[in-house]
Amino acid sequence: MQEPTNNPTQVFRAETPRPSGLFQSKSPACGLPPDFVEKAVGRLGWLALFYAISHPIVRITEGFSPSLEAVYHSGYPLVDFALFGGVLSGGIISALTWSRKVPPALMLDLGLLFEVVGAFWIAIWEHGIPPLADLPFRGLSGIGLWITFFVLVVPSTLGKTVLAAFTTVLMGPLGLLVSGLYYGNPAPPVGRWVEFFFSSFLFAAFAIVLSRFIYNLGCDVTKAREMGSYKLVELLGSGGMGEVWRAEHRMLARPAAIKLVRAEVCGMSDGHAGTLHRRFEREVQSTAALRSPHTVAVYDYGTTADGCFYYVMELLDGFDLEKLVERFGPQPPERVISFLLQACDSLAEAHGAGLVHRDIKPKNMFLCRLGLNYDFLKVLDFGLVKSAVPSESFQGGLTLDGTTTGTPAYMSPEMALGDKTVDARADIYSLGCVAYWLLTGQLVFEGNTPMAVLVAHIQNPPIPPSERTELEIPEDLERVILSCLDKDPAKRPPSAQDLARLLEACRLAGGWDRTRAEDWWRTHAPSLAAPLPVGLPAVANS
Predict the structure, then answer these.
(1) Catalytic residue among 317, 320, 345, 359, which?
(2) Is 306 one of the annotated active-site residues of the chain?
(3) I want to staple 219 with a disulfide (CB 3.0 to 4.6 A). Which of 30, 262, 361, 388 is the partner?
(4) Which pTM value belongs to this model?
């Protein structure tokens, strides 16, 4: 499901116990999440750019010191060599990170190599001038600071961190040896070696400990994203209440989508958090009970260790009706009729079970390819579903105090007025708004504020869709749509089944057949229309 629906939640703590001990080995399955690695690559690019720019800046500022300026003018090519090497290596790494041509994991390994090379140029810079009595003391080696900054940018395993850190520290003595060989200076006494480089080794040890905390945090995120038998793979999008992720089952090849409530939503006051939990639990239970092929299928649901709610549903290939019109413009009337009939199939079953969706809108109607069926429509996001028949399961409705549920552009007048007796005819009104959008590419009512739109739905008569588009809209279809948009619920089609019968009686009903649907997908979404490889799941993003 490429577009996120409205509600879902990122989980931050692991459900499985963490190994005790800072350096305890991780299981082979533990690794950094892809988005964690991507962000690390971005930080590496900025660090490399800063490294490249800092070399000429330091060279210029050191020239302002009278004692150092005399030294530089006396000619010490190792310093200029370090300047050139630092700018070149930093520029290369920065360019590679932003080109995105190197896989992220490999890029981080190259980053560790850059840590060592960068330390070498720092060492050459620091020791490229022979020690002179009149030179000021330069303080601690920059290599120690370089190691510390680097572990904050590039998370890595314990083995790689130790190898990179101590190899980086050894660049200090190597730089001193290179300087001595180049200028023919004798090696300093042992005491001077300790004085020069002991602090760098301390920095390296500290950096290794710090790196463990950072890497363990990434592993905790990975574990926290493993929901029961499912593992979160890729963030598909986010909405007002949370997130939708592409997920993989540990044993099955079939991919899925997981909807999660945001962690900050779970951290609301107990009363509101309880209301939201009941609402999401009701959503998944009501959706799972429906069997229409045009209702999104739900596989599983549960609560994380943090008390946040999630559920698992089928992953769909395609786009919602909002994206369809935004990308391809208003749709032919016969195709719109096909969409509406499929939506009626889903809603008729829900209404028959006493459930009202209450948030029918183009973004909650997903168009996909399902097997050999093209233009297959799925109704999503029963998160605002409400029982039309009071019962113990639905006492009083589960909305937050002082709020109006639904989407203003597609909300029925009775919902805008806060009527507590909303029934299936509210969904019929919203479906009429969706048909209006599909045919014209415009909303029934527009306004500068959500309240202005709600007032228009309550008071203003809709302009016939044929007057707001250059495309021809059959009179019989327009009459059906305007009947759905009647302010009085009693004058609308009383049920989704009745609406389906009116649509089937339209002259162009059945004009959008399977051949036309397949031709459209092969022309406009060829990646989704291609034959599926046998035995492999398709997770396409258009």
Answers:
(1) 359
(2) no
(3) 30
(4) 0.59
